[in-house]
UniProtKB/TrEMBL annotation:
The lineage of its organism: Bacteria, Bacillati, Bacillota, Bacilli, Bacillales. Residues 317-328 have a biased composition (Pro residues). InterPro entries: CvfB_fam, CvfB_S1_2nd, CvfB_S1_3rd, CvfB_S1_st, CvfB_WH, NA-bd_OB-fold, S1_domain, WH-like_DNA-bd_sf. Belongs to the CvfB family. PANTHER family: CONSERVED VIRULENCE FACTOR B (PTHR37296). Residues 283-328 are annotated as: Disordered. Residues 298-311 have a biased composition (Basic and acidic residues). It comes from Paenibacillus cisolokensis. It holds the Pfam family S1_2. The gene is yitL. Residues 73-139, 155-222 form the S1 motif domain. This is S1 motif domain-containing protein.
Amino acid sequence: MSLTAGEVRKLKVAREVPPYGYFLSDGMSDVLLHYSEIVGDRPKPGDEVSVFIYHDTEDRLAATMKTPLIRLGELARLRVADVHPRLGCFLEMGLGRQLLLPQSELPERREYRPQPGDELFVMLTHDKAGRLLAKLAREEDLAPKTFAVPAAWRGRWIEGWVTKTLQIGSFVLIDGDVVGFGAYGMIPDAERSRTLRLGERVQARITYIRPDGRANLAMAPRKEVARVEDADRILAFLRERPSGSMPYSDETPADIIKQKFGISKSAFKRALGKLMREGRVTQKGSWTYLSDDGAADGDGKDKPDGGHGREAAANPSNPPQPANPLKE
């Protein structure tokens, strides 16, 4: 039986070759176990040792007694140690050396690609030369290990790892904890509060459990909670502006709202409605103005602009008009 990179084998110590280490044999082939790759006491000729087979820096088969985080044909979650702009990602595999995940396995859009510290579900395989290589785990690799999302989890906040991210949304392997390996969920694009990378750790809320046992997820809290947070964000934005006004309202396009505030237009309208009902802001045309109550809310002090927001609210017919809201 020939020696293959990625396998753990029990081999007999054939001989010691100072200053390098020991040659191990399966009866047909020899492989070097370097002194630096020994764990525990040094073996003696004739002993049988369990080793992991890999390629060294000169592409020669070598052996190590260190325990790898993944073996040939296995699936594991490995941490991104480094990113090369042309080659791909280098992953930690527990041996003091790194495993390449080629660029061809990564998303085309750069903002979706992993960064150091992210963790990816991968399979260990070979390249055409027989060297070890990582391959991104696909849905068909992960699905047999997953379980259906329990009905009791609806509304629960969960954590998980992004396994695929596209324009339509991001797929997440939800932590299984004591239940099992994990469950599948998806965050639709409209429910993402920001761009998500492949391999990123994410928190989300289960909004719906589908008949196939998978979950729809959202990164924002429930509407009644989000409405308060979004309203506070809008108020803070207005208070920071010298005029106490902004060229954003119910009429503003959804893409501009998403870019400026990181929320959907419907969420923006709910938050504005709350502020107007409370008398904190007013609207005229495509502009929103801070009212007296909104300017003095919180610490009881007028905002630092000396009351210009109140003047703008009182005279909405003559607001400062920027050339382009996106350049604000």
